[in-house]
Design a protein that fits this description.
Blueprint: H1 2-31, H2 36-62, H3 67-85, H4 90-110
Helix pairs in contact: 1-2, 1-4, 2-3, 3-4
Amino acid sequence: MKKINSFKCGLLGSIIGFIIGITLIVIILISGNYDKKTIEVLGPRIIYVFIFSVVALIGVFISRKKSQFGALLMVMCAIAGIMYTTTLYIIPSIFLMVSGFTMFSDLKNNR
């Protein structure tokens, strides 16, 4: 039962990451703020949000077969997301860490 909840929690974190990335792109396009400084600051962060969300999504689906590897991917994406994107990835990181650590604790309890 916990594995299903961990799967849903990780999936939710990854989807929220995608939504944050899309929202940032839309905000930049609507505001018309295309100056060089804005693109230099937010451009790489938006790309990192998408990269970490994709890798976390892969980790979520891998966790159905190989729980330890999938949990490790989710936790690594959560930590790297906070490091590289600062405040943009806090909410998805919380979901991914909860999901990853729950899977690790399930593995520990099953042994």
